[in-house]
Design goal:
The protein is mostly helical. Helix 2 packs across helix 12, helix 4 runs parallel beside helix 7 and helix 10 runs antiparallel to helix 12.
Amino acid sequence: MTIPQAPPVEGEHPLENLANEKLKTKRWFHDPLLVVGIVIVGVAIFLAAFGEAIAPYDPTVPVGPPSVPPSSAHWFGTDTSGLDVFSRVISAPRIDVTLAVSAALLSGIFGTLIGLMAGFYRGVFSSLVMRISDVLQAFPVFILAMVLVALSGRNLTNLIFALTFLYTPIFIRLTRAEVLTQRERSYVEAARAAGNSDFKIALKHVLPNSLTPSLIQLSVTVGFGILLTAGLSFVGAGVRPPNPEWGLMIANSAPQLVLGEWWTSLFPGIAVSLTVVGFAALSNAIERRVATS
């Protein structure tokens, strides 16, 4: 006697599922914006880790005559102090990218957890968190960053904490909005009926389903962090010289533009612009793919 088999359900065949997954993966990498973002972000991260090691010259020590235009010996020329511009440009991600990534990760962690609690436990705590976020976001980001750095001191640790403080409200709002939707889903009621505490439901069930907006925002926040770090250094409130940092290089070279020394500010300007565009492109591509998946 043979046991009758249930008819196969359309779309559930393992081979079809595997083919669909492969097709989705191919579509991801056929997106030019995604590829550009991955390449630029990959190069930026590589230079943040190894840029100073592969630089042809020490980025903080004069290596030749001052204000030499680009040549075979110095690809991007030298600045007014005789520092090799190319070595400084590829060494700068160690500060710019590291600061921005560290601040983005910290603000993402703190903001996501606070937003989770504010969205899941509605009441006085949620209202207080949102009002504080409103107050922080009411101030111009750049001005508030200058104030925080001036009060805490110009060093890398304080810069990371200042950026983290500024960007945390963004993640709080994104996570809270998503949690407010997720907490009404049937799986939350099922978990509660199974005897799970609210705290366990929030961390184990609601949080994993509420991470998508914050993960997409991370790449954008890194780009904003790079811009803000460069801006603070440009006005003298960020990284101290002679550390290689894009904003500081542009600030020191700006007066030389009227003398025709364009290379000392052009190359770091291109570097910071490309890096920010790369992180923004990556975030935009991921957001569009997640929305259509």
